[in-house]
Amino acid sequence: MADSTISSTTASAAQNSSLTAAANSLVSTLPANQQLGENDFLNLLVTQLQNQDPLKPVDNQDFIAQLAQFSQLQQSAQQVTLLQQLISGQNASQAYSLIPLIGHQVNVAGSSIQLNSGGATLGYSLAGNAAAVSVTITDAENQAVRVLNLGAQGSGGQQVQWNGLDQNGNQVPAGTYQYAVSAVDNNGNKVAATTNSIVTVSGVVPNSGQTPTILAGGQVIDPSTITDIY
User: Fold this and answer.
1) What is the enclosing helix (H) or strand (E) of 126?
2) Burial class (CB in 10 A: 0-12, 13-18, 19+), 128
3) Local structure of 50: helix, strand or coil
4) Phi, psi for 118 (deg, rounded to 5)
5) CA neighbours closer than 13 Å in the CB half-sphere of residue 99
6) Is residue 81 helix, strand or coil?
7) CB of 140 within 8 A of CB of 175?
8) C-alpha span between 165 and 148 (Å, rounded)
């Protein structure tokens, strides 16, 4: 009885060793960091059947369970593919829906302005009443080209038009500029100001597999940050 048990255990261990060696050989052929896929799972199953002990084949229940796992793996792979197709379709639809924005001005959070032949509009919001407000406009090299002293302004949203002239009255080149707002109250305390850019949409970037974005004012903008369209 003991000899029979030992013999059975030895045979089982030998079979497991053979299966393990075959599986390891198959797995070792995979590129680094690659997970087992549908075909790899099927190859492992076939390898297991080829290396089983003819006198002690794989138990039917185990074999059915492995087939069920393979079926689930196949269904999961199909679901992932369908989900990816659905996401790609939605992103393409979103990109097409943004095309009508091209040529329009939009209001987004930021401090960029796009100067053209008609000047540029600067937008910002004050957290409280200000006794003195000034706007400093800088170029691509962060050099100040114009300071606008706007006097007293109330709290809330504000807009000011810049004609594109520098501090000496010379016309500056068209392009993208930055601006910063400084404001103080009657006591000389700083009043917080939040800037927002009014820029012209020049294009749409589909961004395959990701949310589409738009090109405006020389920068890439998330459409969700748009607050107004003109």
Assistant:
1) strand 120-126
2) middle
3) helix
4) -95, 10
5) 7
6) helix
7) yes
8) 11
Q: Is the pTM of this model over 0.90?
A: no
Longest alpha-carbon distance in the chain: 108
pLDDT tens digit sequence for 130-148: 999 999 999 989 999 999 9
CA distances to 101, 123, 143, 219 from 213, in Å: 11, 22, 29, 10
Q: Which residues, 6+ apart, have CB-to-CB distance to 135 below 8 Å?
A: 122, 124, 147, 148, 150, 160, 179, 180, 181, 182
Strand order in the sheet with 130-138: 112-115, 175-184, 130-138, 144-153
CATH class for domain 100-229? mainly beta
CA distance 145 to 168: 9
What's the one-letter identity of residue 129?
A: N
Q: Where exactly are the structural domains of the chain?
A: 1-26+37-74, 100-229
Answer for the pair 22, 51: CB distance below 8 angstroms, yes or no: yes
Residue 162 CB neighbour total at 10 angstroms: 19
d(CA 171, CA 204): 31
64-112 tens-digit pLDDT: 566 666 666 666 666 666 656 555 545 556 777 788 888 888 888 888 8
